[in-house]
Amino acid sequence: MAIELHPLEQFSIERLIPIHIGGLDLSYTNAALMMTIAVVLVTALTVLATRRAALIPGRWQSAAEMIYEFVADMVDTNIGHGGREFFPFIFTLFTFILFANLLGMIPYSYTTTSQIIVTFALAAVVFILVTTIGIIRHGFHFLSLFVPHGVPKVLLLLLVPIELLSYFIRPFTLSIRLFANMLAGHTMLAIFGGFAASVGIFAFFPAAINVLLVGLEFLVAVLQAYVFAILTCLYLNEAIHLH
Amino acid sequence: MSEGEAPDPLARLGERIDKARAERVRRQPTAADRSALQQGIGSGLRIGIELVVAIGVATGLGWATDHWLGTRPWGMIVLFFLGVAAGMLNVYRAVTGIGTPVGYRRAGEEGAGTRAAKDEWDDDEN
Predict the structure, then answer these.
(1) Which of B37, B38, B47, B57 should be substituted to probe chain A, the one whose Cβ sees the most A Cβ atoms within 10 Å?
(2) So what's the pLDDT on residue A242?
(3) pTM for the complete prediction?
């Protein structure tokens, strides 16, 4: 008795509502649905929980305030002066990724952050924002980011390309980190789940490993949202204060 | 009933509760420990991918340049080494930033401790 394993099947995109406009496939997919749910949940948590704000917060208000304070603290320590105006952006980014990651942990749901195009779009937004802010704030002087001070002129020929490259690689590292972590984690869960289904009475061992992996995946889900948000803070810090 | 005459078993119970509480407080990781752990995990997960992606993207860029300009294989070779250097630079920066929250440097912070740990080149970059 062989059970076919398709650990990558969970990432397939299905069109729920096909929409085709002028040769473009703009269908509403299962990935889009999960993103919508994430947005709705975040909005519900922040709006409903604080609608009747009490001095002594209830459970939901407490949860919303904890996330708020966590992000506010992150923005303050990592961007510092002038960082508060980016708080809404960081908060949106963090909560969206967090909810998308955590929603993916529900069995039979879909992990949107395991799609490179989703994470790359987020990272591209961050990259464009950071670069734009840097240029607006510092103008031509922003390019000094790529020129290390006090280095012999000859070495600059080598160092400037390296600095440029390390700057332009940011959206890739930012997006691939999140995408790879989610993809790998969920694939692993599916593989061990498949083992458990196919080895009969020995199913206990892969199942036990899966229980541990689920715990690990929850950690990764929260941590990757945190890493994404904190790196955005650090990049913004660099663009605003420019060393 | 005054305090001095508290029944013996009850007084001892109070003592035992105090002792157990003290023990529990001692055994629990402090907030500082926990945040250090979080930052450790955070930076560990971050750095792993930094080098790989830098090399991959740079080499891909080199390949594309070659394809476009017909300079095979020079663009790929040059950009591969630049990618290695850029990746190492990113990792180096992330590592020297450990201790400050998972990253380069804390905003506006130039403490004596972090300064001493950096070499001259890094200092110049600030």
Answers:
(1) B57
(2) 80
(3) 0.80
The structure tokens listed for B53 are 């992606």
- Residues in chain A, how many? 243
Instruction: Kindly tell me if the per-residue pLDDT of B123 is higher than 60.
Output: no
Q: Whose CA is closest to B41, among A181, A173, A122? A: A181
Please name the amino acid found at residue A96: F
- 3 state DSSP class of B82: helix
Which pLDDT value is given to residue A114? 93
What's the pLDDT at B121?
Answer: 42
What the block records as the tokens of A42 is: 């975040």
- Output the pLDDT for position B19: 87
B83 CB near a chain A CB, below 8 Å? yes
Proportion of chain A above pLDDT 70, given as a percent? 98
**Residues B44-56: b if buried by 16+ CB within 10 A, e if exposed:** ebbbebbbebbbb
Mutate to test the interface with B, among A165, A219, A220, A223 (most CBs of B within 10 A): A165
Distance (Å, rounded) from C-alpha A136 to C-alpha A143? Answer: 12
CA distance A161 to chain B (A): 7
Coil, strand or helix: which one is A17?
A: strand
Put simply, the answer to whether A165 touches B107 (Cβ < 8 Å) is no
Scanning every residue of chain A, which has its alpha carbon at the shortest distance from the alpha carbon of B51? A173
Contact A174, A118 (CB under 8 A): no
For chains A and B, count residue pairs whose Cβ atoms are closer than 8 Å. 93
Q: Is the pLDDT of residue A136 over 90?
A: yes
Q: Which residues contact A227 (CB under 8 A, 6 or more apart)?
A: A177, A178, B42, B45, B46, B102
Please choose, from the candidates B54, B96, B105, B121, the residue with its C-alpha nearest in 3D space to the C-alpha of residue A166. B54
Residue B21 host element (H or E): helix B8-27
